[in-house]
Specification:
Helix content: 25-40%
Order of helices and strands: EEEEHEEEEHHEHEHEHEHEHEHHEHE
Radius of gyration: 20 Å
Largest sheet: 8 strands, mixed
Structural class: alpha/beta
Number of helices: 11
Strand content: 25-35%
């Protein structure tokens, strides 16, 4: 084990899910240090707050740890120690896909999940670059095969997936129509790069068809539920509807004759599941994101919370009160 041994530390603070009843059952308390054997131990400087973390507090995610557990999928920080031969040096600034344990002062992560971050990125921005941005780079570049000049419609545009979709679609040279339920966010979304902002309640499908003169090339749908049917209708021939998740609660159904006769595609973008079979894609997508950063992409962090406020951060995310990305900073 290279570097100093974190086992000499007396203990640490972490947010602990005590039962599967949501953010209210998350408390911040002292816990044991992470086990370092074969793992990279990080001094956590920032932890992303993402929808999978929230679902885990309810026991509704595909990964269902039994309480008590420390949530936290995406982290950025400084390496305290690393296994010999890993190529990771103590003191390095890194981000990591933790899976669990990120809402803590320190976390142990598998070496293959640790990636370098450039000096141009702060820790909060680096932590935000993991779940949402990796998912959407994978979704747009690989699953949707987005081409420059195409039009992308983004549903749920003011949330973490939505804002990263806007930024990355613009980075790929697309025109972006942001569809949003919230009031008062139009200027924010335009500043991110949205070319048009459409209100969900104001006949959004008809407005999209008007703006696109026949339909969109790509629709990004992290919402599902009642918006799904209209999302299918606004696709142009050969358009692609990219299913990211079901934040709206309902899992929609589709009659396949609509796909057949309209010559459209419905594609899934389950990034975590894809990594199970193609783990090398983790680094590939990270490198693509860093190229976007070099070309001017600025990861968005609009809500910063202290570690002690982790329960409130999760509650705010659940209530739809987070604009863009929320991060715990230490």
């Amino acid at each position: 084990m290279s570097g100093g041994a974190p086992s000499m530390l007396a203990g640490m603070r972490a947010a602990v899910v005590t039962e599967l009843s949501g953010p209210s059952a998350t408390i911040v308390r002292d816990v044991d240090e992470p086990t370092a054997d074969g793992m990279v131990v990080l001094d956590v400087k920032a932890s992303g707050v993402c929808f999978p973390d929230l679902l885990m507090t309810h026991g509704k995610y595909q990964i269902r740890p039994e309480p008590p557990f420390v949530p936290g999928t995406e982290v950025a920080g400084v390496v305290l120690s690393a296994p010999d031969g890993s190529g990771i040096e103590p003191g390095a600034r890194v981000l990591a896909f933790a899976g669990l344990g990120g809402y803590a002062e320190r976390v142990a992560v598998a070496p293959e999940m640790v990636l370098p971050i450039p000096d141009s990125l702060g820790f909060a921005e680096a932590a935000s670059l993991i779940i949402n941005y990796q998912t959407m780079e994978f979704a747009l570049a690989r699953r949707a095969r987005l081409q420059p000049g195409e039009t992308v419609v983004v549903l749920g545009a003011a949330g973490g997936i939505g804002t990263s979709s806007i930024q990355l679609a613009k980075a790929h040279g697309a025109r972006v129509i942001a569809v949003v339920r919230r009031e008062g966010v139009d200027d924010f979304l335009r500043d991110l790069g949205a070319d048009e902002v459409v209100r969900l309640a104001d006949g959004w499908g008809a407005r999209v068809r008007e703006l696109t003169e026949g339909g969109a090339h790509v629709v990004v749908d992290p919402v599902g539920g009642d918006t799904f049917d209209e999302a299918v209708r606004v696709l142009a021939p050969e358009g692609r509807l990219v299913v990211i998740g079901f934040a709206g609660g309902g899992i929609p159904e589709l009659k396949l004759n609509r796909v057949l006769f309209r010559n459209i595609s419905i594609v899934g973008a389950a990034w975590g599941e894809f990594l199970r079979s193609r783990p090398e894609a983790y680094r590939e997508v990270h490198e693509a994101l860093l190229r976007h950063v070099e070309n001017g992409l600025e990861p968005l962090v609009r809500a910063r919370y202290a570690l002690e406020d982790a329960p409130r951060a999760l509650a705010d995310l659940e209530a739809g009160e987070v604009l863009g990305k929320a991060v715990l900073v230490q």
